[in-house]
Design goal:
alpha/beta, globular, disordered C terminus
Length: 196
């Protein structure tokens, strides 16, 4: 009876990518976290970058429509030397964020280091170490087809571990709608008009 009084929320975690996008869904009830689902969306067969972005948008909307998450936690692109890779990852992340915003799902962004630190206690942990820790924490035996799936799950679990009020931490950014996103990202959306 007591458990029914605890607040529940479903968190969708996404590790954006243009070849493979990983996702994970968890249900949080009080301090308890349960695995709902995890998987990957493959895009290697698509040659056109715009078709990949379309698939990311459609699949993210599909996940939101199917599972009705309360929020989206997404991994921020890491800063690498290859500008083209960074641009493509940024677009993939932006499209997943746009899909969530189109369904009025709030978004929080985490750096890869913050996610690894939250899951393993080590900001330099390997993907394998993160996956092993998640398997132990959420009690699942299946080895995901790709580590991208556990990377997506790690973002969701990282978000669950954050008990600070939304937007109070310097390591994450939250958006509750297009208006706040645009206000905080003027350089990313210049020329876009917001209708009031």
């Amino acid at each position: 009876m007591q458990e029914n009084l605890q607040k529940e929320r479903i968190i969708l975690g996404i590790d954006p990518g243009t070849a493979v996008m990983g996702y994970g869904l968890v249900k949080e009830t009080g301090n308890k976290i349960e695995l709902i689902n995890l998987g990957v969306i493959k895009m290697e067969s698509l040659d056109d970058h715009m078709l990949k972005l379309q698939r990311i948008f459609e699949k993210t909307v599909h996940l939101i429509n199917n599972y009705h998450p309360d929020c989206l936690a997404i991994e921020a692109p890491f800063y690498g030397k290859n500008i083209q890779v960074m641009l493509k990852l940024g677009r993939a992340q932006g499209v997943a964020m746009a899909a969530a915003l189109s369904r009025n799902v709030s978004i929080t962004e985490y750096s890869p280091r913050k996610i690894k630190q939250a899951i393993t206690g080590n900001g330099n942990a390997t993907k394998e170490q993160v996956a092993a820790m998640l398997q132990n924490l959420l009690k699942f035996k299946e080895t995901p087809e790709f580590l991208d799936a556990t990377d997506g799950l790690a973002v969701a679990v990282c978000h669950s571990f954050q008990k600070l009020p939304t937007g109070k931490s310097g390591s994450k950014k939250s958006y509750s709608g297009w208006e706040t996103f645009v206000k905080d990202n003027q350089n990313r959306v210049s020329g876009l008009k917001i209708k009031k």
